[in-house]
Amino acid sequence: MSDNEQRVIFVFPGQGSQYTGIGSDLCAEFASARQVYEQASDVLGYDMAKLSSENPDDQINLTRFTQPVLLTHHIACLTVYRELAADPLIPAAAAGHSLGEYSALVAANALSFEDALRLVAKRGELMGTYGEGEMAALTVDLETARPLADKHFCGIAGLNLPDQTVVGGAGADLDALAAEMEQLMPTKRAVRLKTEGAFHTYYMVEAARRFRESLAEATFAPAELKVLSNYTGGFHEDNAESIKSRLFFQLFHPVNWVGCLQSALDDGITLFVEFGGGIGTGEGPSEKRPNLEGIIKKYTRRSKPKPDYLPAINLETIRAAAGITAD
Fold first, then answer.
1. In this protein, which residues make up the domain named Malonyl-CoA:ACP transacylase (MAT) (predicted)?
2. Which of 73, 74, 152, 200 is catalytic?
3. Does domain 134-193 have CATH number 3.30.70.250?
4. 106 Cβ contact partners less than 8 Å away, ≥ 6 residues apart
5. 242 is catalytic
6. Which of 63, 144, 194, 228 could form a disulfide with 124 if both were Cys (CB 3.0 to 4.6 A apart)?
7. Which of 98, 103, 214, 229 is an active site residue?
């Protein structure tokens, strides 16, 4: 299948894919990337490039900063890719995991970069201020996780894979859930996540109530691409008020990433391209791995035809995605 025949979706990761030095490789070589970071600085009132590169006082891991840091990196990666590629891929759709949904809306020109920055900065501030609890990823399906979560006053926070369900709750409640899970299912795991709260659960209701005011003030344009909704797992309606309501509910409902992936496949997507973020213990952009790659490949491995995957998360992978080979 040629590039022209491919049906492409651009995807953007969420929190957990931030790291010290994020974007520094792009800013060192591309004026276009520096301009994206300067725009972010002008909108937010602090030096985004310095925060991302140097991470003073570990601020990058505070939700109020994490979210604009990642949004900026997503858009910088996308901008550099489009600059480098002689024949850039034209997506049919866009999607993002949690915070990444805002980047998807920017990619679809439904939301300006500046307005998205204001929204995610407020979103992160409210989630950090009013959110409570912690999160854990369980290596079980939703049907197994839900009764355990209910019993221990935890909420379902994310459906990453059919056999990976994220839950959120008070620390003591998650401890009790993990202990019972180990007793009942010793081969399964409950992996604690580093977050400032039980995101996408009832612990975020107050943050969502306050965030509604910011959503009401934001301007959304008709999307030029189909954009997937974390809340429904399907595509957003082409209606600004509907998109706002879905983003409101997204804050305290599970991220239905399984639904999003299935909707993408049902729509005939043949290529997933991931922009921004990075995970792994290596230092610096060049040593990071894509955040969503494993989930996407695992979910789609039995699909026929099996879709392709392409990362564009740092200078090396963006060059490769743009068709530029190393000397």
1. 11-291
2. 200
3. yes
4. 71, 74, 75, 112, 113, 116
5. no
6. 63
7. 98
